[in-house]
Amino acid sequence: MGEILDEISRVHREVGTRRVASEEAGTVLLRRTFDAGAADVWDAVTSPERIARWFLPVTGEFRVGGGYQLEGNAGGEIVECVPPERLRVSWSAGPDPGFSEVEVRLAPEGSHRTVLELEHASVVPEEFRSQFGPGAVGIGWDLALLGLGWHLAGDGISPEDAVEWQNSPEARGFVARSGEEWGRAFAASGADPETVTATTVATIEFYTGA
């Protein structure tokens, strides 16, 4: 358990907002350094074959303006692609979700390390935000970066094993710690302490089924 929880400390988390047209979008930002060159990380986050090995199977037209669909998850449009630095996509996980966008940014740190930033900005109903907070999105991306890290290190697991792992005590411990860290990031953004506590508990319970 200790080793898997160490993965939590590898990620820097921020919660914020930014204007999108006339609306205010909530943002979560994750930053992690991987022991892999930028070309390898870029290929891992843009190659459909490799995305399926650490995240989910994906289909679509893989060009700017083309659509994509992650199996059983989100879909959208490829808005911007600047190899090997930046990928931006719209992110729709349900009917008429409003503005939701994910941007991945890469910066080389020497020849064998890469800093990855992932920012998810979305406009969500206030009742959902006040119930679950940014951890509802953040925990999911923590799990995704965990899978990416395993993949880049050559320790990836099969989709079948991933499903089994998600129901394990180790996975529940990871999710709980992730939720706590997103609660801290939410508090650091200036959120009301009572709201932070309530949303952190609700989000961890949602993910773990507690």
Q: What is the makeup of the main sheet? A: 8 strands, antiparallel
Mean pLDDT: 93
Gyration radius (Cα, Å) is 17 Å
Low-confidence stretches: none
The strand line-up of the biggest sheet is 1-2-8-7-6-5-4-3
Percent in helix: 40-55%
Topology order in helix (H) and strand (E) letters:
HEEHHEEEEEEHHHHH
How would you classify the helix and strand content by structural class? alpha+beta
Categorize the overall geometry. globular
Q: N-to-C terminal Cα separation, in Å?
A: 19 Å
Portion of residues in beta strands equals 25-35%
Work out the number of β strands. 8
Helical element count? 8
Molecular structure report:
By secondary structure, the protein is an alpha+beta fold. It is built from eight helices and eight strands. It has helices spanning 2-6, 38-46, 48-54, 126-132, 135-152, 159-166, 169-188, 193-208, and strands at residues 11-20, 23-34, 58-60, 67-70, 75-82, 86-90, 100-108, 114-122. The protein has an eight-stranded antiparallel sheet with strand order 1-2-8-7-6-5-4-3. Helix 7 (169-188) packs antiparallel against helix 8.
What's the structural blueprint in terms of helices and strands?
Blueprint: H1 2-6, E1 11-20, E2 23-34, H2 38-46, H3 48-54, E3 58-60, E4 67-70, E5 75-82, E6 86-90, E7 100-108, E8 114-122, H4 126-132, H5 135-152, H6 159-166, H7 169-188, H8 193-208
Antiparallel strand pairs: 1-2, 2-8, 3-4, 4-5, 5-6, 6-7, 7-8
Helix pairs in contact: 4-8, 5-7, 7-8
